[in-house]
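Let's practice the habit of predicting before peeking. Look at the sequence and jot down your guess about where helices and strands might fall. Then scroll down.
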Amino acid sequence: MLQQQANIDLLKNVKHVILDMDGTIYSGSTLFDFSLPFLQQMTDLGIGYTFLTNNCSRSVTQYLKKLDNLSVPASLDNMLTSMHCTVFYLKKHMPNAKKLYVVGTQGLFDDLTNAGFTVVNGIDEMPGNEPDAVIVGFDTDLTYEPLCRASYWVKTGKPFIATHPDVFCPTNQPTLLVDCGAVTKCIEAATKIAPTIVLGKPHEYMIQPILEKHGLSGNQAIMIGDRLMTDVAMGLKAGTLSCLVLTGDSQIEDIQIQKIMPDIVAASLKELGEAITKAQKKEVNNA
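Done guessing? Here is the structure:
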């Protein structure tokens, strides 16, 4: 099943695919059987790909290990989390911000440190270690003290940046994983101060570094994901093509409910891969 047939011809211009992960290429720890063939199709067509996730509870290195365990080819060059979006924002709008108080996992600490920032958690009370900004991410080890400390710094007027808006993280386990958006709301309720900015999908800064790096514009890139409110909405904001795959969260009926219209709707990456291949081969034959 492939909908929005009128837009299929736009796929002839695609040079790069940007892929959400959970719900798009895998579910939990199970790789969809069509994911590797799709990536091979793209490689054969000379189309690049980048993996993108709002979930910054794992470091990029940890994500690469997971992908490697699933036999998915990936590297530091094509694996981005909402941490990268946060770094992009800080360097663009707060170039003097070097010290950060972070609500997040050790993986997020490590990635921010590798990006050139100093995480001041635990040493922020010492002279000269006052943070320049507070970063709130997805902290799967969240405890009370850093939540209070982050709220204190927000209350003193420090910029308050959320890595992404998700209030929960999908799981197939019998629990509910409280995510960044919910923790952000907690700090906002305690301080009566809204975040300076909420990054990650659907913010266009999540996709902008990819477009700039590869010199892409318009329909040369396509954002592919299973969520209308984040994946598809971001593609629309950034001006790329967008594709909703029906292997995860959003379904056909949600399009009218949420009033977010993707360029293409595909049952899975299998159908999308076939459509891209057909469009690109047709363009070659017509050249």
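How did you do? The chain has a mean pLDDT of 93.
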